């Protein structure tokens, strides 16, 4: 006898169908959808986090600090690694299956009533609306929201939460954002609203653009970490990273691995100090305790085994280069085999060039999404000597055989690859995002 299909399974099937229709930027559909839902975004407060890399890590750090401080939170991130529930977390843990399903069905019902000329909402817009409704229902002290592609036309830009963050700027999503740093910075800085407190880790021309955007928007303040706010970092290897930041100087550590996490930690710490000035209980002590407790799967995540597995969702050349820099000392003296897959619309040549210093042995695969690049195409671009596998589990099996018990396998190239690698390794991502490692 067939098992009954759960509400959660029906909801995720509906989202999967929407996902196949592709991406459409613009705020018209999400605004119409929220109108049908009674404008649940009105009055919400928190932090809106944009940036090319690091925005998810900053969100996770902020959520961990807030929950450690006793504040209630809803956190919206994207994409998920294993479970759709990861995209809406309540008080540090992914939302329950039944609650998630109820939110999705409610939003889909509202979507049926929006004007037909606007078209159907995208999967991102539906999940964004669901997260906003969850925030209205839970009335958290803080709504922590990760911006998706760009900022100006991303569905999250309907939110004015009081604090706007731009982690940093690099080239990614060329088709949508172009390859001009100033232009990309302008797209991401468009999340800044009048009266916002702004924090950024950007430098150079990107920082100039963000400062100008903040001034034109009428922001209340802007703090540039590394320019206005001094800091220095310390790489602690597999123990994570530490930073000293600001005046008075605060020392804080996190188990997140990789030198690139130093700036993310510094940005998150400064945001928490801004939140404290806005009346939130994010004291320096709460920052230290929360940062030490954060858990953010799929980002330089080391899994012991024979051989061990290192998983990272790096998805553009800058992120791959940062991953390689962090991975080289961890993999030193071991035979290293890479499992790599990426989205077809990425800068594949740039990503592979950044990847080469880590290993000459690669198994190319593809994530289970229509946007995934074909393994054969990747292998041809690599230039010979690589293996291909139809899916991530098969790629991991081949890589483990090549690496042997004393080697190490590195799975990377996209958050989809990271999620599927964790699932294949039997790792859960729904046990509480702020749980102690």
TrEMBL record:
Domain of life: Bacteria
Sequence ranges assigned to domain Mur ligase C-terminal in this UniProt record: 298-414
Coiled-coil annotated residue ranges, if any: none
Chain segments annotated as transmembrane: none
Enzymatic class: ligase
Matches recorded under Pfam families: Mur_ligase_C, Mur_ligase_M
Alphabetized GO MF terms: ATP binding; dihydrofolate synthase activity; metal ion binding; tetrahydrofolylpolyglutamate synthase activity
Catalysed reactions listed for this entry: (6S)-5,6,7,8-tetrahydrofolyl-(gamma-L-Glu)(n) + L-glutamate + ATP = (6S)-5,6,7,8-tetrahydrofolyl-(gamma-L-Glu)(n+1) + ADP + phosphate + H(+)
GO cellular component, one term: cytoplasm
KW ATP-binding (keyword) present: yes
Family, per entry: Belongs to the folylpolyglutamate synthase family.
This protein's name: tetrahydrofolate synthase
Species of provenance: Candidatus Amunia macphersoniae
